[in-house]
Amino acid sequence: MTDTDCILASRHLLGIEGLTREELLLFLDNADNFSEVMTREIKKVPALRGKTVINLFLEPSTRTRSSFEIAAKILSADTINISGSESSTSKGETLLDTAHTLEAMNPDLLIIRHKESGAPHLLAKHLKRTVVVNAGDGTHEHPTQALLDCMTIRQHLRIKGRGLSGIKVAIVGDVRHSRVARSNLYAHLLLGNEVTLVGPETLVPQDFLGPKAFGGKGKISIARNLQDGVKGADVVICLRMQLERQAGNYVPNLEEYSREFGVSERVLKAHAPDSVVLHPGPANRGIEVSSEVLDGPRSLFRMQVHNGVATRMAVLFLLATHKDSTHKELAAA
């Protein structure tokens, strides 16, 4: 089966786990096509005209929510945004009751961001007509972030005449709490890449190598110091140090964490001189990554934000047209 012949097995996108390599590449290929739309003077295509997209964000978000909204509008879909304070969940209504209420209004896609792991899966199980897209659930997954990260890495590697497979990726920081790390792990294992998780045992538990986690599915290792972890890496993904979760005393203090695991230009120049750096944002400058790196030539941070729109356009388009025989091609502009 070629990538262009791939048909999505599921009408939802709940995570990278469960996708095939072909499905992953289908999303990326369509995102590449949609990125051209964003360069036009008039950024509008009729691909999803007549479709309705609801963004149900019950957890704070800037980049993900904005890019989903922009993506839907460029595709000509009608878009409704609902935050936690605006939904009836703030009055005690259950998430499932809220979702059933919204489905009764016949939307085509429901984008859900929720603090609890598994929330999108619950909705996908019970909603009969509405497509569910996971925009981040608890510490579980953030699939569209991993897709835009892969798109960004592939664009960079193309310039160097390289492909997206067979590279070395270092993921540095609070892996324990990171849905971004989990989705990227699944993605890079599908692509046949070598992944090193870097951080103290409190933030990078040894059980990430266990048979019930990711062990046995690809090349994963754990490094307990930054220098060893990024050595020879093509890509370094810096994770946000989730300050709101540090009440659990996972590190002695942020200053000590930064000294040991803060990604700096000095370390990268010495141990991964040809690497590029990604960050899902928002970044805690001077803690998980230095401003010199984040604003420097090896940073792909702004490109990630830019690619977020094209990636989410691809996700919305492919899922909304899942049953259409023409779903592999962009709608005529």
Would you summarize the structure shown here?
The chain is 36% helix and 14% strand. It is of the alpha/beta class and 333 residues long.
CATH superfamily of the largest domain: Aspartate/ornithine carbamoyltransferase
Which H/E pattern describes the elements? Answer: HEHEHEHEHEHEEHEHHEHH
Q: Structurally, how many domains make up the residues?
A: 2
CATH topology of the largest domain: Rossmann fold
Structural class: alpha/beta
Name of the CATH first level of the largest domain: Alpha Beta
Sheet-strand content, in percent, reads: 5-15%
Number of separate helices? 11
Largest sheet: number of strands, sense, barrel closure: 5 strands, parallel
Give the helix level as a range of percent.
25-40%
What is the average per-residue confidence, as pLDDT, rounded to a whole number? Answer: 91
* Rg over alpha carbons: 20 Å
The CATH architecture assignment of the largest domain turns out to be 3-Layer(aba) Sandwich
Instruction: List low-confidence stretches.
Output: 324-333
DSSP summary, beta strand count: 9
